[in-house]
């Protein structure tokens, strides 16, 4: 990953930045704003508790199997993140290159909860975890089928704040709904859309077979509609007629403009 080159940009904290020039804080911040807050607290406590216990009795953590597992979890959680930052490896679109460290963070969080048990606090923490998990489940149901755009309360949810600061539906899953809307509502037999990024074009294959021939991708001068998920262009477009949009957490993740 440190030798891989991806000549594109990433939206981060309102700035469009080349992937090779991202801040060392890019991944920690993304982990911080896309994970349940109470879980973040538990993760941090678990990592701290594991490191302190290891430093106090280092040999025990090599000979005692349960303790050795804690060292393994610490390594799996910290080493990849540290290496990516230290080597300047290319990453893009949140922290998906490092999702694989999440199970290790969960195990460290559970270790932290067991440590709290000795202090009589584990029940309070478990109640908080279950409460926030319930809230998160409700939020994810509301976000469906765009759970990927979940952000926690550590980042602003003001009107369009998320769209203007962070990547959202970068996989282009909303294009399916956009095309289905046009199939159901566009009066034209031949629906001419500005030729867009590959995810827009690929989503035609999800449509009903009989509907696919109606979609035609053309240059802007010939098109009737412009469909965007705002990837690489978080600002509004200078087209006045919005015929359809999808919003989540007060930010627009997809929009259809009628050009003529």
Question: Any overview of this molecule?
Answer:
The strands form 3 sheets. Strands 5-7-6 form a 3-stranded antiparallel beta sheet. A two-stranded antiparallel ribbon has the order 1-2. By secondary structure, the chain is of the alpha+beta class. It contains 9 helices and 7 strands.
How would you describe this structure in keywords?
260 residues, alpha+beta, 3-stranded antiparallel beta sheet, two-stranded antiparallel ribbon, 9 helices, elongated
At a glance:
This protein is an alpha+beta fold. 44% of the residues lie in helices and 13% in strands.
How is the secondary structure organized here?
Elements: E1 9-12, E2 15-18, H1 26-33, H2 37-56, H3 60-63, H4 65-87, H5 102-117, H6 122-143, H7 161-165, H8 174-185, E3 191-194, H9 198-202, E4 215-218, E5 225-228, E6 242-248, E7 251-258
Parallel strand pairs: 3-4
Antiparallel strand pairs: 1-2, 5-7, 6-7
Helix pairs in contact: 2-4, 2-5, 2-6, 4-5, 5-6
Inertia-based shape: elongated
Structural class: alpha+beta
Helix content: 40-55%
Average of the residue pLDDT scores = 91
Give unreliable regions as ranges: none
Strand content: 5-15%
- Total number of helices: 9
- The value of Rg in angstroms is 23 Å
Order of SSEs, N→C? EEHHHHHHHHEHEEEE
Assembly type of the chains comes to single chain
Question: Numbering strands along the chain, what is their spatial order in the largest sheet?
Answer: 5-7-6
The total strand number stands at 7
Largest sheet: 3 strands, antiparallel
């Amino acid at each position: 990953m440190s030798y891989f080159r991806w000549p594109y940009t990433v939206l981060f904290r309102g700035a469009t930045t080349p992937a090779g020039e991202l801040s060392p804080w890019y991944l920690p911040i993304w982990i911080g704003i896309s994970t349940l807050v109470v879980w973040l607290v538990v993760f941090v406590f678990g990592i701290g508790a594991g490191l302190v216990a290891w430093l106090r009795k280092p040999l025990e953590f090599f000979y005692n199997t349960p303790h050795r597992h804690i060292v393994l979890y610490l390594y799996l959680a910290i080493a990849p993140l540290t290496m990516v930052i230290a080597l300047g490896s290319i990453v893009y679109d949140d922290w998906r290159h490092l999702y694989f460290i999440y199970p290790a963070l969960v195990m460290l969080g559970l270790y932290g909860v067991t440590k709290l048990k000795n202090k009589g606090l584990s029940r309070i923490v478990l109640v908080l975890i279950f409460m926030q998990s319930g809230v998160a489940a409700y939020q994810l149901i509301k976000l469906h089928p765009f759970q990927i755009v979940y952000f926690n309360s550590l980042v602003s949810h003001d009107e369009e704040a998320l769209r203007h600061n962070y990547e959202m539906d970068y996989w282009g899953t909303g294009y399916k709904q956009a095309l289905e809307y046009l199939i159901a509502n566009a009066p034209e037999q031949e629906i001419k859309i500005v030729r867009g990024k590959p995810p827009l074009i690929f989503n035609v294959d999800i449509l009903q077979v009989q509907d696919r021939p109606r979609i035609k991708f053309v240059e802007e001068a010939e098109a009737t509609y412009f469909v965007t998920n705002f990837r690489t262009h978080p600002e509004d477009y200078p087209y006045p007629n919005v015929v359809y949009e999808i919003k989540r957490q007060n930010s627009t993740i997809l929009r259809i403009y009628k050009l003529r």
